[in-house]
Amino acid sequence: MHSTLPRTVSALVLALAAGAGATGATPTDSHPLQLASVRSLRAFRAQQAASQLRQLRGEFGLDERSDFLPGRTLVNAQGRTVVRLKQTFGGLRVWGGEAIAHVESDGQVKVLSQGVKPAVALAAQSPRLTADQARDLAVKQLGLKVGVAAPPIVEPVVFPTRYTGGMATRYDATKRAHVLDRSMSVWAKKPAQDYVQAYEVRTLVSNVKDGHQEITFIVDATTGAILRKWSALQSLAVDTPTQGVGHSYYRGTVPLSTTQEAGGTYMLRAMDRGTLPNPYVLSQGESWVGLTTCYGIIDWNTNSLGFTPYAGHATNEWGDGTAMPLPWDFNNPDPWSSSLLLDTSGDGTLSWMKGALTPAGETAAVDAHFGLSTTLDFYKNVFNRDGIDNQGTSTFSIVHTIEGQGIIFDNAYWDPWSFCMHFGEGAFPGFADGMLTGTTEMDITGHELTHGVTQWSVGADGEGLHYWHQSGGLNEATSDMMGKMVQAYADGGGTGTTVPNFASGDLAPWEVAHQSAAPSLGALRFMYKPSLDGMSTDNWYDGVDLLDVHFSSGAPNRFFYFLSQGASANASSPTYSPYLPSGMTGLGNDKAARIWYKTLTEQLTPDADFMAARDGSIQAATDLAATPGSGFDASDVLAVQKAWAAVNVGVAPGAPEPVRISLPVVNGPGSFLDQNAHPSGILAKVQFFPTKSDVFVRAEVTNTSDTRVDFATPTWTTWSGAEVGHINADGSWTTPSFAFYGELLNITAISKADPRQYSKGYVLLVAADADTDNETDALDLGAVAMNWGLPHTPHPSTAITGDFGVSDWDVVFLGESLANAFPAPAAE
C-alpha cells in the first residue's frame, strides 16, 4: 500500500484458512449449481467468519468484551461469501466499527479490517442519562416550532471520541461559497477517553412550520453533551399489474408498469418491482408492495406533511410531456402566508400543489416512475440485485414534495427513515437563482435510489458511507456514477445484462442534470472535469475534507470517468490530468460499473476514504481478472491504478512517490485547544491569528528536498471571495484590519518543487483588541479573561461578540490567536 494519503486507521489484512496458514487463494468461475450450494452455506460462512475474527481480537488490542456479529451477507458470482460484521463492545454497537470477511468457496477467509476500531474500552462508571433523557436533549436541540413527526429512535452505542464534531461548513448557494454552518457545528469538549458510551438518536420532523428534517445526534451518556450531529437526508380489493403509457418531460413517450385497481381505475404502482412491503408505510397501517409514485400533501388536521399515491386514474395514459407551471403567488412572497398555491380537498382536510393532478402535473410522476423502474431493472439485470436492500423491500417516491407551506423545493433526496425518495419542484425559470427545471431527470432518479443502495451495501446494519469528509464524497460520487450508468442503460433500451457506452467523444452525458439544470449552470456537476462548476475538486489534496460532500465527490467522479472513458494526453482538453500527463485508455461503462459495484458491496466500510476506495477497487479488479470468462485481465487492474493516479490518489504503476504538502497540525491531541476548549478533528489544522497583526502562516512539504512553498492570496469565505492581503513565500502576512469575530479565511499553500501539489485550509481570525487601545498584545487576553465563566455578561469590547454561545470560548480563541502570532522564543 502506498502511504500517499493520510489514514486514520491502518488496514490490517489477514488471510486465514480453517486449520491452515495464510493463503493467496483467488476466486474461480462458479457453476450455478455450485453457487446454489455456496448460498445454502451462507449462514454457516457468516458464523465461520465471526469465529475467526474473534480469534484476531488481540491484533486490535481488544479483549473478550469485544465481539463481531454477522450482518448482511452476499454470495458473488465467483462463489465468494462476503460477510459484513458489526463490531460490538459489551453488547453495544461500536459506532462506525465494522469488518468485512471474504470467505472463499473452499472455506478460506480473508479479513478486511480498515473499519475495525482498535483498543475499545469504557470507563467504569455507569451512564448517568437514560435513553429518554438523551432523546429529550436531542429534540430540544432541534428548536422546533411544532414537534417531531414520529418518536425518535434511540440506540445505546460505544462512540469513538475522535469523531466528536466541531466546526461544520455548508455551501451557501447565494454566495457560491462555503460558510460557517453554526446550526450543524458542535462546540463540545472532546471527552478525555478514546471511547464513551453514548446514545444515537435519530429524529424525524415533517410539518408545515419546520419542514422535513432527519437529524441524527450522538449524545454522551454521562455528560449529556451533543458529540456529533448530522442530517441523514442524502440529496437528489385485488389489484392487477398492467402496462400503461407515460408522456415524460425528459424522455418522450415511455412504457409504465402500473396497477389496475379493483374499481377499474389505475394507479402508478409497479407491482413487479418489490416483493416485501415498505416498512414505513406498513408502520402506518397499510401494506404497499411494489414501486409506488405519490404526490406531496399537507394534512391540515395535524399540520403535517404527507403523501398519497397517484391513483383513481380513469385511463392508463399519464402526463402530457410538459412541465407543471410553478404554483407560486409572486404577489405574496411571504413563505408562511399563501405564496404556494394549493388545491384543497372537498372537506378542507388535505391540500397539495395546484396543478399536481393535471396532465402537466402528472408529467413529473411519469419521469420519476419510469426512471426509478429503470434503475431497479438496472440493478436487477446487471448485478442481480433484488431492490435497494437486496431483499426485495418495496420503495416509493414523492413528486411535487412539499417542504413547507410556502417553499418550492429545488432539490431531491433519499429519505432513509421512510425508505423512499423525494423529488422537488425545481425553481428555474420561476426564480432567478433556481437550479433546476425539475428533479426527475433519469440520472437524478438513478442518483437518489443509489443512495439507498449505498446505505444497504456498506455497513453491517444499513449504516452506509458516512455522509461527511471523504466517505461522504464517495457516497455522493457513487450516486453520480451509478446514476450515469442507469442513464446509459436506459439510452441502450433498458434491457439486457450489460451497460452500453455513451456516444464516443460526447461529454454531455457525463454532466449531472445536463437537461434539467439552469442555463447559467449548464449542469450540476461535470464528471469529466468537476471544477467546471466552480466549487468541486478535480483531485485529492490535503484539505479536501473541508468541502461539502457534493464537491469533494469530484475526485472519485473524475476517477470513474477516466476509468470508463480514459484521459487525454492533450493539455488543452477538459479530460486531461496533470497527474497523468501521458493519458490513458478507458475500459468502457460496463467494466467500470462492475468494478465500482464490486468495490462498494465487497470492499468499503462506513468511514472509507479515497485511498481505501483505491485499494478496494484495485482488489475488485484483481478478483474479476482472476475469474475465468469474466472478460477482465491484468490490464484492467493497471487501468484502475492509473485512473486513481490521475486524480492524485496513489501513483501510477512505476511512478515515484509524489511530493506532498499539508498544513501543519496545530491543535492536535493533547493541545490546550483540543483538551480544554474544542474537540480534535476539523480544527486540527486551522491556524488562529489576531486581526491587524504581523504573523507567519506555516505549511509542510514532504517527499522532496525542496520544501519551499507559494501561498495564494487569502480570501474571505463569506464576502464574495474578497482578497485580504498577501502571504509572502516565507509565510509572513499582515492580517486584515476589521472587527469581525471568528472570520474564516481560505488559504492555499502550493509546492514550489511540484506546483501540482497543494494544500487548502482555513485561517480563523479573531478581532483581538479587547481593551480597545488599538494594539494587539497580551493585555487583551486579560480584558477578555475578566468575563471567564460569565456567559451572559457583555465583553469589554464589542469586537468580541461571543458568537459561539459562551464567553469562555472567546478566551480560548483569543489565547490561541495570540500564541500563534507571538510564539515563545526557542530555547537556546
Explain what the structure shows.
- By secondary structure, the chain is of the alpha+beta class.
- It has 15 helices and 39 strands.
- The strands form ten sheets. Strands 1, 2, 3, 4, 5, 6, 9, 12 and 13 form a nine-stranded mixed beta sheet that branches.
- Strand 12 and strand 13 (226-231) form a beta hairpin.
- The longest helix is centred in the middle third of the chain and has 25 residues, at 359-383.
- Mean pLDDT is 83; it is low at 1-28 and 789-807.
The low-pLDDT segments are 1-28, 789-807
* CA-based gyration radius: 27 Å
The gross shape turns out to be globular
* Quaternary structure classification: single chain
Summarize the entry for a quick read.
By secondary structure, the chain is of the alpha+beta class. Helix 9 packs across helix 10 and helix 9 (554-565) runs antiparallel to helix 12 (634-645).
Chart the SSEs and their pairings.
Elements: E1 13-16, H1 32-40, H2 42-54, E2 66-75, E3 81-89, E4 92-103, E5 109-112, H3 131-142, E6 153-160, E7 169-172, E8 177-180, E9 195-202, E10 205-207, E11 211-213, E12 215-220, E13 226-231, E14 234-235, E15 240-247, E16 253-260, E17 266-267, E18 269-270, H4 279-283, E19 291-299, E20 304-309, E21 317-318, E22 342-344, E23 350-353, H5 359-383, E24 396-399, E25 412-415, E26 420-423, H6 442-455, H7 469-491, E27 511-512, E28 525-526, H8 549-552, H9 554-565, E29 566-567, E30 584-585, H10 589-602, H11 610-625, H12 634-645, E31 660-662, H13 672-677, E32 687-690, E33 694-696, E34 700-702, E35 709-711, E36 715-716, E37 732-734, E38 743-751, E39 758-766, H14 779-785, H15 808-821
Parallel strand pairs: 4-6, 15-21, 19-24, 24-26, 32-39
Antiparallel strand pairs: 1-5, 2-3, 3-4, 4-5, 6-9, 7-8, 9-12, 10-11, 12-13, 14-25, 15-16, 16-17, 18-19, 19-20, 19-23, 22-23, 25-26, 27-28, 29-30, 31-34, 33-37, 35-38, 36-38, 38-39
Helix pairs in contact: 5-6, 6-7, 7-9, 7-10, 9-10, 9-12, 10-11, 11-12, 14-15
